[in-house]
Design goal:
It comes from Tanticharoenia sakaeratensis NBRC 103193. This protein is an alpha/beta fold. Helix content is 56%, strand content 10%. The strands form 2 sheets. A 5-stranded parallel sheet has the order 2-5-6-1-7, with helices on both faces.
Amino acid sequence: MHAFRSAWAAGRLHHAWLLHGPEGIGKATLAFRLARIVLGAEDMASPEGRRVSAGTHADLLVIRRGFDEKRGRPRAEIVMDDVAPIQQFLRRTAAEAGWRVVLIDGAEYLNRNAANALLKLLEEPPPKAVILMTSAAPGRLLPTIRSRCRRLGLDPLDGSTMRAVLTGQGQPDDVIARLIAEGAGAPGRAARLALDSDGAIADFVSGTLDGTVAPSAILAQSERIARQDDGFAVFTELLGARLAMSARAAGHAGDVAAAAAQARAFRAIEDLRRETERFNLDKAVAVQMAVAVATGDDQAGS
């Protein structure tokens, strides 16, 4: 925030910024705050501030994954049709603040065609325009896109700040400690994990990795998770977090082979999650596959 505001005040604002950090850390919230600086809309009660809040500011264009009405969730990718309006938006003269802002939320979801179209804009940026991108997985962006952006990394919140945020969200006192531990400093992530209100999915993940869940119970648990709203998303998020934590611990201990194995399992489960959501695959089967990947047991759930 300070780096952006300083560049703006000095009249040396870079044309593209990449805000990266863990899922749920508040990247989109920060991106909108930066957009408000450029658009003179920091006062929420001002006409400009209200237009940004309402999504009607003429000099702000927000790009994110479209919504799949049939499946009732965001589409798997940001496609060419989603980014096509950017070029026309940047060609025209700013209507209000003299500057134009494009905010791409979740830039890692850009498919190849959309990413290449964006790259052309970054290579020849128009004057008095800034592109703000958020990403929880900047490594999935084209290297040529990353190289043209100034990066702002968001660090996880500490425990006391997380407690204050979760309390403000109205989370019950008896689950806040669990959400702080599982949320890894990301309040948005903690709010999603709160959907596992009784901790059953978290217990299943722990038991699976600790070897205390009987193979015969995996099928029943996977079907329960698949039936629960957002159950699959919560399961894969918790499982991925445990694997990432194990990979870091093994790396710090000098066990390179174990760290690499845990990292491979983490990536495989991320791929499985994306493919399951993209193609609307059977989530119960996907849970069983994720368990097999995480435990190295290809027979899990069979």
